[in-house]
Write a structure and sequence with these properties.
about 325 residues, mainly alpha, 11 helices
Length: about 325
Protein backbone atom coordinates (compact mmCIF):
# COMPACT_ATOMS: atom_id res chain seq x y z
CA UNK A 1 0.00 0.00 0.00
CA UNK A 2 1.30 3.44 -0.89
CA UNK A 3 2.14 5.78 1.98
CA UNK A 4 -0.47 8.28 0.85
CA UNK A 5 -3.11 5.53 1.00
CA UNK A 6 -2.06 4.66 4.55
CA UNK A 7 -2.69 8.25 5.63
CA UNK A 8 -5.99 8.28 3.77
CA UNK A 9 -6.93 5.12 5.62
CA UNK A 10 -5.98 6.80 8.92
CA UNK A 11 -8.30 9.70 8.13
CA UNK A 12 -11.10 7.28 7.22
CA UNK A 13 -10.53 5.33 10.45
CA UNK A 14 -10.81 8.50 12.56
CA UNK A 15 -13.88 9.76 10.71
CA UNK A 16 -15.59 6.38 11.02
CA UNK A 17 -14.93 6.19 14.74
CA UNK A 18 -16.14 9.76 15.31
CA UNK A 19 -19.27 9.13 13.24
CA UNK A 20 -20.09 6.06 15.31
CA UNK A 21 -19.64 8.03 18.54
CA UNK A 22 -22.00 10.73 17.26
CA UNK A 23 -24.80 8.92 15.42
CA UNK A 24 -24.25 5.22 16.14
CA UNK A 25 -26.15 2.81 13.92
CA UNK A 26 -29.51 4.31 12.83
CA UNK A 27 -31.92 1.58 11.74
CA UNK A 28 -33.12 3.56 8.72
CA UNK A 29 -29.69 3.47 7.06
CA UNK A 30 -28.81 0.58 4.73
CA UNK A 31 -26.28 -1.64 6.50
CA UNK A 32 -23.69 -3.92 4.81
CA UNK A 33 -23.95 -6.39 7.70
CA UNK A 34 -27.61 -6.99 6.80
CA UNK A 35 -26.53 -7.81 3.24
CA UNK A 36 -23.86 -10.15 4.58
CA UNK A 37 -26.52 -11.74 6.77
CA UNK A 38 -28.74 -12.35 3.74
CA UNK A 39 -25.82 -13.98 1.92
CA UNK A 40 -25.17 -16.25 4.91
CA UNK A 41 -28.86 -17.20 5.12
CA UNK A 42 -28.94 -17.97 1.39
CA UNK A 43 -25.85 -20.19 1.60
CA UNK A 44 -27.16 -21.82 4.75
CA UNK A 45 -30.32 -22.91 2.95
CA UNK A 46 -28.42 -24.08 -0.14
CA UNK A 47 -25.57 -25.95 1.56
CA UNK A 48 -27.14 -27.45 4.67
CA UNK A 49 -28.85 -30.83 4.30
CA UNK A 50 -30.14 -32.73 7.31
CA UNK A 51 -29.31 -36.16 5.84
CA UNK A 52 -25.60 -35.40 5.30
CA UNK A 53 -22.89 -37.02 7.38
CA UNK A 54 -21.15 -35.07 10.14
CA UNK A 55 -18.03 -34.76 8.00
CA UNK A 56 -20.01 -33.48 5.01
CA UNK A 57 -21.77 -30.89 7.16
CA UNK A 58 -18.42 -29.74 8.50
CA UNK A 59 -16.93 -29.46 5.00
CA UNK A 60 -19.92 -27.55 3.69
CA UNK A 61 -19.59 -25.21 6.65
CA UNK A 62 -16.01 -24.50 5.56
CA UNK A 63 -17.25 -23.81 2.03
CA UNK A 64 -19.79 -21.31 3.39
CA UNK A 65 -17.09 -19.49 5.38
CA UNK A 66 -14.76 -19.28 2.38
CA UNK A 67 -17.48 -18.03 0.02
CA UNK A 68 -18.66 -15.32 2.44
CA UNK A 69 -15.10 -14.10 3.12
CA UNK A 70 -14.12 -14.06 -0.56
CA UNK A 71 -17.27 -12.22 -1.66
CA UNK A 72 -17.03 -9.70 1.19
CA UNK A 73 -13.33 -9.03 0.61
CA UNK A 74 -13.72 -8.88 -3.17
CA UNK A 75 -16.63 -6.46 -3.19
CA UNK A 76 -15.06 -4.26 -0.51
CA UNK A 77 -11.80 -4.12 -2.48
CA UNK A 78 -13.56 -3.22 -5.73
CA UNK A 79 -15.63 -0.48 -4.06
CA UNK A 80 -12.63 1.10 -2.34
CA UNK A 81 -10.36 0.95 -5.41
CA UNK A 82 -13.08 2.41 -7.64
CA UNK A 83 -13.81 5.18 -5.14
CA UNK A 84 -10.17 6.24 -4.75
CA UNK A 85 -9.67 6.15 -8.53
CA UNK A 86 -12.57 8.55 -9.02
CA UNK A 87 -11.32 10.96 -6.36
CA UNK A 88 -9.33 10.84 -3.13
CA UNK A 89 -12.12 12.61 -1.22
CA UNK A 90 -14.66 10.05 -2.43
CA UNK A 91 -12.33 7.22 -1.47
CA UNK A 92 -11.90 8.58 2.06
CA UNK A 93 -15.66 9.12 2.32
CA UNK A 94 -16.46 5.55 1.24
CA UNK A 95 -13.79 3.96 3.44
CA UNK A 96 -14.84 6.04 6.44
CA UNK A 97 -18.37 4.73 5.85
CA UNK A 98 -17.08 1.17 6.03
CA UNK A 99 -15.23 1.99 9.25
CA UNK A 100 -18.40 3.56 10.64
CA UNK A 101 -20.41 0.44 9.86
CA UNK A 102 -17.79 -1.84 11.42
CA UNK A 103 -17.63 -0.10 14.81
CA UNK A 104 -20.58 -0.38 17.19
CA UNK A 105 -19.64 1.50 20.38
CA UNK A 106 -22.60 3.89 20.47
CA UNK A 107 -25.13 1.21 19.60
CA UNK A 108 -23.76 -0.93 22.43
CA UNK A 109 -23.98 2.01 24.83
CA UNK A 110 -27.50 2.97 23.75
CA UNK A 111 -28.89 -0.57 24.11
CA UNK A 112 -27.30 -1.17 27.51
CA UNK A 113 -28.27 2.27 28.83
CA UNK A 114 -31.84 1.53 27.81
CA UNK A 115 -31.66 -1.39 30.26
CA UNK A 116 -30.26 0.95 32.91
CA UNK A 117 -33.08 3.44 32.35
CA UNK A 118 -35.80 0.88 33.02
CA UNK A 119 -33.98 -0.55 36.02
CA UNK A 120 -33.53 2.95 37.38
CA UNK A 121 -37.28 3.63 37.30
CA UNK A 122 -38.06 0.22 38.76
CA UNK A 123 -39.68 -1.32 35.67
CA UNK A 124 -38.33 -4.87 35.77
CA UNK A 125 -40.57 -6.14 32.94
CA UNK A 126 -39.33 -3.51 30.47
CA UNK A 127 -35.72 -3.92 31.61
CA UNK A 128 -36.00 -7.65 30.87
CA UNK A 129 -37.31 -6.88 27.38
CA UNK A 130 -34.54 -4.34 26.84
CA UNK A 131 -31.76 -6.71 27.88
CA UNK A 132 -33.28 -9.48 25.74
CA UNK A 133 -32.30 -7.39 22.70
CA UNK A 134 -28.59 -7.79 23.49
CA UNK A 135 -28.26 -11.21 25.19
CA UNK A 136 -29.04 -14.77 24.16
CA UNK A 137 -30.11 -16.12 27.55
CA UNK A 138 -33.65 -16.35 28.92
CA UNK A 139 -34.43 -13.00 30.51
CA UNK A 140 -37.91 -13.61 31.92
CA UNK A 141 -36.37 -15.38 34.94
CA UNK A 142 -33.91 -12.61 35.80
CA UNK A 143 -34.25 -10.32 38.79
CA UNK A 144 -32.87 -6.76 38.88
CA UNK A 145 -29.34 -7.94 39.67
CA UNK A 146 -29.51 -10.59 36.94
CA UNK A 147 -30.64 -8.04 34.37
CA UNK A 148 -27.87 -5.63 35.35
CA UNK A 149 -25.24 -8.39 35.21
CA UNK A 150 -26.42 -9.49 31.77
CA UNK A 151 -26.11 -5.93 30.43
CA UNK A 152 -22.66 -5.44 31.98
CA UNK A 153 -21.40 -8.75 30.58
CA UNK A 154 -22.62 -7.77 27.12
CA UNK A 155 -20.88 -4.40 27.28
CA UNK A 156 -17.64 -6.08 28.39
CA UNK A 157 -17.76 -8.89 25.82
CA UNK A 158 -18.92 -6.65 22.97
CA UNK A 159 -16.10 -4.20 23.64
CA UNK A 160 -13.98 -6.74 21.79
CA UNK A 161 -16.47 -8.04 19.20
CA UNK A 162 -18.06 -4.71 18.40
CA UNK A 163 -15.27 -2.19 18.90
CA UNK A 164 -11.67 -3.29 19.50
CA UNK A 165 -11.56 -6.22 17.06
CA UNK A 166 -13.11 -4.21 14.19
CA UNK A 167 -10.67 -1.35 14.89
CA UNK A 168 -7.77 -3.82 14.96
CA UNK A 169 -8.60 -5.10 11.48
CA UNK A 170 -9.44 -1.64 10.17
CA UNK A 171 -6.00 -0.52 11.33
CA UNK A 172 -4.35 -3.53 9.68
CA UNK A 173 -6.17 -3.56 6.36
CA UNK A 174 -8.51 -0.60 6.17
CA UNK A 175 -12.16 -0.99 5.25
CA UNK A 176 -11.53 -4.24 3.38
CA UNK A 177 -10.21 -6.21 6.35
CA UNK A 178 -12.69 -4.47 8.64
CA UNK A 179 -15.60 -5.73 6.54
CA UNK A 180 -14.08 -9.22 6.44
CA UNK A 181 -14.02 -9.25 10.23
CA UNK A 182 -17.67 -8.15 10.37
CA UNK A 183 -18.54 -10.97 7.98
CA UNK A 184 -16.71 -13.50 10.18
CA UNK A 185 -18.39 -12.19 13.33
CA UNK A 186 -21.81 -12.23 11.63
CA UNK A 187 -21.33 -15.84 10.55
CA UNK A 188 -20.54 -16.81 14.12
CA UNK A 189 -23.62 -15.02 15.46
CA UNK A 190 -25.87 -16.70 12.87
CA UNK A 191 -24.58 -20.27 12.57
CA UNK A 192 -21.82 -20.69 15.16
CA UNK A 193 -23.98 -22.67 17.58
CA UNK A 194 -23.71 -26.15 19.08
CA UNK A 195 -27.33 -27.10 18.57
CA UNK A 196 -28.52 -29.99 16.43
CA UNK A 197 -28.49 -28.04 13.16
CA UNK A 198 -25.18 -26.20 13.50
CA UNK A 199 -23.05 -28.46 15.68
CA UNK A 200 -20.96 -29.50 12.66
CA UNK A 201 -22.14 -27.15 9.92
CA UNK A 202 -21.35 -24.08 12.05
CA UNK A 203 -18.05 -25.31 13.50
CA UNK A 204 -15.88 -23.57 10.89
CA UNK A 205 -17.69 -20.26 11.42
CA UNK A 206 -17.26 -20.46 15.21
CA UNK A 207 -13.56 -21.39 15.02
CA UNK A 208 -12.86 -18.69 12.42
CA UNK A 209 -14.41 -16.08 14.69
CA UNK A 210 -12.36 -17.38 17.64
CA UNK A 211 -9.18 -17.08 15.56
CA UNK A 212 -10.00 -13.55 14.35
CA UNK A 213 -10.83 -12.42 17.88
CA UNK A 214 -7.86 -14.00 19.66
CA UNK A 215 -5.37 -11.10 19.48
CA UNK A 216 -7.91 -8.23 19.71
CA UNK A 217 -9.53 -9.70 22.84
CA UNK A 218 -6.16 -9.63 24.64
CA UNK A 219 -5.55 -6.08 23.46
CA UNK A 220 -9.02 -5.14 24.71
CA UNK A 221 -8.32 -6.63 28.14
CA UNK A 222 -5.10 -4.65 28.59
CA UNK A 223 -6.77 -1.52 27.27
CA UNK A 224 -9.45 -1.97 29.93
CA UNK A 225 -6.76 -2.28 32.60
CA UNK A 226 -5.09 0.93 31.43
CA UNK A 227 -8.47 2.67 31.30
CA UNK A 228 -9.27 1.41 34.80
CA UNK A 229 -6.14 3.16 36.01
CA UNK A 230 -7.08 6.40 34.23
CA UNK A 231 -10.65 6.25 35.55
CA UNK A 232 -9.51 5.35 39.07
CA UNK A 233 -11.31 2.03 38.96
CA UNK A 234 -9.48 -0.92 40.53
CA UNK A 235 -6.82 -1.55 37.87
CA UNK A 236 -4.81 -3.84 40.14
CA UNK A 237 -7.82 -6.05 40.80
CA UNK A 238 -8.68 -5.97 37.09
CA UNK A 239 -5.28 -7.48 36.29
CA UNK A 240 -5.55 -10.02 39.12
CA UNK A 241 -9.00 -11.24 38.08
CA UNK A 242 -8.01 -11.30 34.40
CA UNK A 243 -4.97 -13.43 35.20
CA UNK A 244 -7.05 -15.84 37.28
CA UNK A 245 -10.37 -15.99 35.39
CA UNK A 246 -9.54 -15.17 31.75
CA UNK A 247 -10.08 -18.80 30.69
CA UNK A 248 -13.34 -19.28 32.65
CA UNK A 249 -15.46 -19.34 29.52
CA UNK A 250 -16.15 -21.82 26.75
CA UNK A 251 -15.00 -19.19 24.26
CA UNK A 252 -11.24 -18.49 24.27
CA UNK A 253 -11.94 -14.77 23.99
CA UNK A 254 -15.09 -13.76 25.88
CA UNK A 255 -13.72 -14.04 29.41
CA UNK A 256 -10.72 -11.87 28.55
CA UNK A 257 -12.76 -8.67 28.76
CA UNK A 258 -15.54 -9.90 31.04
CA UNK A 259 -13.09 -10.93 33.76
CA UNK A 260 -11.21 -7.63 33.43
CA UNK A 261 -14.43 -5.65 33.74
CA UNK A 262 -15.50 -7.67 36.78
CA UNK A 263 -12.16 -6.99 38.43
CA UNK A 264 -12.17 -3.28 37.60
CA UNK A 265 -15.68 -2.82 39.05
CA UNK A 266 -15.01 -5.20 41.98
CA UNK A 267 -18.09 -7.28 41.20
CA UNK A 268 -18.86 -10.86 40.20
CA UNK A 269 -20.19 -11.68 36.74
CA UNK A 270 -21.22 -14.75 34.71
CA UNK A 271 -22.31 -17.94 36.49
CA UNK A 272 -25.34 -20.13 35.77
CA UNK A 273 -27.93 -18.98 33.21
CA UNK A 274 -31.00 -20.36 31.45
CA UNK A 275 -31.02 -20.85 27.67
CA UNK A 276 -34.26 -22.00 26.03
CA UNK A 277 -35.52 -23.12 29.41
CA UNK A 278 -32.43 -25.20 30.18
CA UNK A 279 -30.06 -24.29 33.01
CA UNK A 280 -26.42 -24.11 31.96
CA UNK A 281 -23.71 -24.10 34.61
CA UNK A 282 -20.94 -21.59 33.94
CA UNK A 283 -17.93 -20.49 36.03
CA UNK A 284 -18.04 -17.19 37.85
CA UNK A 285 -15.81 -14.25 36.95
CA UNK A 286 -14.46 -11.94 39.63
CA UNK A 287 -14.89 -11.74 43.39
CA UNK A 288 -18.07 -10.71 45.15
CA UNK A 289 -16.71 -7.62 46.92
CA UNK A 290 -20.08 -5.92 46.57
CA UNK A 291 -23.54 -6.46 45.11
CA UNK A 292 -24.04 -5.60 41.44
CA UNK A 293 -26.20 -2.49 40.97
CA UNK A 294 -27.77 -0.82 37.98
CA UNK A 295 -25.22 2.00 38.16
CA UNK A 296 -22.55 -0.53 37.19
CA UNK A 297 -23.99 -0.48 33.66
CA UNK A 298 -23.01 3.19 33.46
CA UNK A 299 -19.55 2.42 34.87
CA UNK A 300 -19.08 -0.39 32.35
CA UNK A 301 -19.98 1.95 29.49
CA UNK A 302 -17.56 4.60 30.69
CA UNK A 303 -14.88 1.91 30.82
CA UNK A 304 -15.86 0.73 27.34
CA UNK A 305 -15.60 4.20 25.82
CA UNK A 306 -12.33 5.03 27.55
CA UNK A 307 -10.85 1.73 26.34
CA UNK A 308 -12.14 2.35 22.81
CA UNK A 309 -10.65 5.84 22.58
CA UNK A 310 -7.34 4.74 24.10
CA UNK A 311 -7.06 1.81 21.70
CA UNK A 312 -8.01 3.94 18.70
CA UNK A 313 -5.22 6.39 19.56
CA UNK A 314 -2.70 3.53 19.82
CA UNK A 315 -3.80 1.94 16.53
CA UNK A 316 -3.73 5.24 14.64
CA UNK A 317 -0.30 6.08 16.08
CA UNK A 318 1.15 2.76 14.92
CA UNK A 319 -0.42 3.22 11.50
CA UNK A 320 1.08 6.70 11.10
CA UNK A 321 4.51 5.52 12.32
CA UNK A 322 4.38 2.62 9.87
CA UNK A 323 3.54 5.00 7.05
CA UNK A 324 6.40 7.32 8.05
CA UNK A 325 9.04 4.57 7.98
CA UNK A 326 7.62 3.07 4.79
CA UNK A 327 8.05 6.47 3.16
Amino acid sequence: MEVIKIYHSCIAFCLGFILDCIIGDPEFLPHPVRWIGRLISFLDKKLYKENLSEKSKFMRGIILVVIVIVITAGLSLLIIIASYKIHIILGIFVESGMCFYCIAAKNLKDESMNVYHFLNIGDLAKSRKAVARIVGRDTDVLDEIGVAKAAIETVAESLNDGVIAPMFYLALGGGILGMVYKAVNTMDSMIGYKNQRYRYFGTAAAHTDDAFGFIPSRIAAFSMMASSFLLRYDAGNAFRIWKRDRHNHESPNSAQTESTCAGALRIQLAGDAYYDGKLEHKPLLGDNFRTVESRDIVRANILMYCSSILTAIVFISFKIIFGYFLY
